[in-house]
Design goal:
Chains A, B: Belongs to the class-V pyridoxal-phosphate-dependent aminotransferase family. Chains A, B: It comes from Saxophila tyrrhenica. Two copies of one chain form a homodimer. By secondary structure, chain A is α/β, with parallel strands linked by helices. Helix content of chain A is 42%, strand content 15%. Chain A is built from 14 helices and 14 strands. Chains A and B meet through helix 3, helix 4 and helix 10 of A and helix 3, helix 4 and helix 10 of B.
């Protein structure tokens, strides 16, 4: 039994449902942000993040800063790239447009490589683009939360290493870290940015970043100073290194309660093999997608190989809009999200299946959601048909 | 009786002790960041902030963004000022140096007006500086957390309005909002930045800003785009306006749990007249300062009129350092902070007296802290004398 007040199951692609123990950690009594107990907790979070990202290279550097996933983009654009440099942004939905906008804010030229809605740029197109211009970074959204389209990171990284080895590989893992396999060292990734409130399973409010030694070198070799203050690695790097060495340090006040919740969430994740966690998400996702198919519904992600494990974006039957179906689902105790990709937002809904809703043996969130969707669609259709 | 686990009383100048009900709000079950219940809660927070800042002018604009107080500086430097413009930074401690550094990051020229440690720039010096150059903004730290020095906002604002009426007045209220009187409208202030974890009494993780119509106009009339993405008012202004109108809206995911805690904290603050709250903080502070005097200890803030109500920075007896006394206090169940002003950090400690520790009739945090300090000093002196 959950100790949480009764509430509809939140099955949007983040924030997700949180475990009782994680939520209890949010109420931790107040601690000094420079006292030993809190500094130890923060340091352990950073060490655990290395495990979650599967990096043992000591030059890898985790960052945890109060903010949201979006702040990760600022961190990349303000620290890794410099004004006038070029970024190649692979587009699989809304979040590539925003990341490109962030680069432009910092004076970095963003070139977007687009694919039809529901698909992703193909490797030969990426290769062609990389050969045409020298890019400081290439960015890829692992799972685009607006479309549920998954990008394959390893083959992409292999290609970049071969064709343009100096280009740094930046992964937007906001909707993938914690539910999709990410082998930071083995695949040779340079930056992964993410947030706390999705598959990591900790309430929103933290920007989480893992940077490679190469990314940190690029930062250290900048000709200009980082052009953010709150998001500056010049300010945060010594702090993160001190925290991990369990030494008190101050730049800006972190959120002890959120850090405690992150600590609990990471401990839970690492209490079993990561491979099992990723496999479980994949299995549940495949089950969801099969049921969606069986209901006669189509997904935005058009091919099995580019469908994310943590969410499913579902086209509604012709003529039905999110405001017609979402309240019905809510009455059945399930919250889904509306569309976010601006060209087709009124045509689809999004179902997040990540974290405790997927991993817990005690919860039936996913099966209840599928049942609610099936019944809800039938009810709405009946009502519309009867008009 | 508190429902919190037993712990030493946190009496540093932020984070402070939090009320049970506020901490319980941190464990709120997960909600959609675009669902009506959460949007209503966020909107009410913004409306309550107007009351806390004593502004009824509809053109005033509150912002609440995941981050820390520091992010407020970025918001000012990236939205209100433009590269090449000038900022006059009144210096009363560590935080003016940092704010100036933040301005320089964004290409704004920061001129610091310094005072001897423990004092503040005098009005005639400010007047002289304002007459020498055209400043886009003047900034003042209301209470500098590193020194406990209070700046007087109203006379300063009156002077600026008279001498340099186009100069926007920016108040760093991180350590003052919630415990010092701030009359946003009546005094004609343009921006106040603050954070959640001090006298507002909500755990750390939120950057809170109130901007005047003039400040928003300055932002709208920029010749260049805001040079931050996560901190850009271009991105956040429509979101905040929508939240307050109770309309769902998305730029970056806020932290529902922190917003619930802020809601609880603001409701508690506004449940009694603000004047009573400020008077209570002043009275308790004067009591603390009298006891400190009686112990033969000197304050950093050298004159009664520049001593903050929310904290006291205390010089240790000659030869005694913070690492010698702070662990003794901790054993007595009280946590104070060490020095932060770099020139004299080893010579003083800081005692925060804000929020629930001051306002609650049930708690004896302040009297216990004074007793611990008195006894602790005697013990440490005896030990040192015996060596």
């Amino acid at each position: 039994m959950s100790s949480q007040a009764p509430h509809p199951a939140l099955l949007i692609p983040g924030p997700i449902e949180f475990d009782d123990e994680v939520l209890a950690s949010m109420s931790h009594y107040s601690e000094s942000h420079v006292g030993a107990p809190f500094v130890n907790t923060f340091g352990e979070c950073l060490s655990m993040l290395r495990k979650l990202f599967q990096t043992e290279n000591p030059s890898s550097q985790p960052f945890v800063i109060s903010g949201s996933g979006t702040l990760g983009w600022d961190q990349v654009a303000a620290n890794v790239t410099e004004p006038g440099e070029d970024a190649l942004v692979l587009h699989t939905g809304y979040f590539a447009d925003s990341f490109a906008d962030c680069f432009e804010t910092y004076g970095v030229n963003a070139t977007q490589l687009k694919a039809p809605i529901g698909d992703r740029p193909q490797l030969d197109e990426v290769e062609k683009a990389l050969k045409e211009k020298k890019y400081k970074v290439i960015t890829v959204t692992h799972t685009d939360t607006s479309t549920g389209v998954l990008s394959e990171i390893k083959p992409l990284a292999d290609l970049v290493h071969k064709v343009s080895p100096d280009t740094l590989i930046v992964v937007d893992g906001v909707c993938s870290v914690g539910c999709e396999d990410i082998q930071f060292d083995a695949w040779g990734i340079d930056v992964v940015i993410t947030a706390s409130q999705k598959a990591i399973g900790c309430p929103a409010g933290l920007s989480i970043v893992m940077a490679s030694g190469r990314a940190i070198e690029a930062f250290k070799n900048r000709k200009s100073r980082p052009n953010s203050y709150f998001g500056s690695w010049k300010n945060w790097l010594p702090i993160m290194q001190n925290y991990e060495a369990k030494k008190p340090s101050y730049f800006a006040t972190p959120s002890p309660q959120l850090i405690h919740a992150l600590h609990t969430a990471l401990k839970q994740i690492l209490s079993q093999p990561l491979a099992d966690r990723f496999a479980r998400h994949k299995k549940v996702s495949q089950g969801v997608k099969k049921e969606i198919d069986a209901m006669g519904l189509k997904q935005l992600a058009s091919k099995p190989e580019n469908q994310a494990s943590g969410m499913t974006a579902i086209y509604l039957p012709e003529g039905l809009t999110p405001p017609e179906i979402l309240p019905t689902l809510m009455k059945k105790g399930v919250i889904f999200a509306g569309g976010l990709h601006k060209e087709i937002a009124a045509k689809y809904i999004r179902f997040g299946h990540m974290g405790v809703s997927v991993m817990s043996e005690q919860r039936d969130d996913i099966s209840r959601a599928l049942k609610a969707l099936k019944e809800g669609l039938a009810e709405v259709n009946a009502t519309k048909g009867g008009k």
